[in-house]
């Protein structure tokens, strides 16, 4: 078995799917088959099987989502220091933030991106509306459309 600490998690062991070679100049060299698929499998295990995520696991998922602490904080509507505290086990992630993190990872793992796109749009849009009314029209193709926007 190989203790796979390179992923940032201290409790991952590989039964197979790896080779260890010894090089005189560099020492022990480890090659792992399909690292991206391994990380996806680890992430899906975390979001589907772990009842609570610890700091290492939150950091792993954030990095797999390719987000900085600052960007994740913006998506979850918390301070960057809050994410830092979660990842160092100095604070406990809220259930709603944890559920959203799990949903974001699941969506990325299975393709898509609509959830992340919607959250980013909400975080960056102006919060002022021109009026309190919304106007929609019905088109020949039997679909409804906002007067100014195409709803996705």
Q: Report the helical percentage.
A: 40-55%
What is the global morphology? elongated
Order of helices and strands: EEEEHHHHHHEE
The tally of beta strands, per DSSP, is 6
Count of alpha/pi helices: 6
Poorly predicted regions:
none
Q: Which structural class matches the secondary elements?
A: alpha+beta
Kindly state the mean pLDDT as a whole number? 88
Q: Strand arrangement, largest sheet?
A: 1-2
The major pleated sheet works out as:
2 strands, antiparallel
Residue fraction in strands: 5-15%
Q: What is the C-alpha radius of gyration, as a whole number of Å?
A: 21 Å
Question: N-to-C terminal Cα separation, in Å?
Answer: 47 Å
Describe this structure in words.
The chain has helices at 35-49, 55-64, 69-76, 80-87, 95-109, 114-124; strands at 2-3, 13-14, 18-23, 27-32, 136-138, 144-146. By secondary structure, the protein is an alpha+beta fold. A hairpin with a 5-residue loop joins β5 and β6 (144-146). α1 (35-49) crosses α2 and α1 packs antiparallel against α5. The longest helix is centred in the first third of the chain and has 15 residues, at 35-49. The model has no long low-confidence stretch (mean pLDDT 88).
Supply the key terms.
single chain; 152 residues; alpha+beta; two-stranded antiparallel sheet
Task: Put the structure in a nutshell.
The protein has helices at residues 35-49, 55-64, 69-76, 80-87, 95-109, 114-124, and strands at residues 2-3, 13-14, 18-23, 27-32, 136-138, 144-146. The chain is α+β, with helices and mostly antiparallel strands. The N and C termini lie far apart (47 Å).
């Amino acid at each position: 078995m190989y203790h796979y600490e390179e992923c940032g998690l201290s409790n991952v062991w590989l039964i197979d799917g790896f080779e260890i070679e010894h090089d005189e100049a560099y020492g022990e060299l480890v090659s792992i088959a399909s690292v991206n698929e391994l990380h996806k499998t680890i992430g899906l295990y975390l979001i589907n099987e772990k009842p609570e995520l610890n700091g290492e696991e939150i950091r792993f998922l954030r990095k797999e989502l390719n987000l900085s602490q600052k960007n994740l904080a913006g998506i979850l509507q918390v301070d960057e220091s809050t994410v830092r505290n979660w990842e160092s086990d100095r604070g406990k992630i809220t259930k709603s933030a944890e559920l959203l993190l799990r949903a974001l990872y699941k969506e990325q793992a299975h393709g898509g991106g609509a959830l992340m796109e919607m959250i980013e749009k909400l975080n960056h849009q102006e919060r002022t509306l021109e009026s309190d009314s919304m106007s929609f029209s019905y088109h020949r193709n039997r679909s409804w459309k906002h007067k100014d926007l195409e709803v996705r």
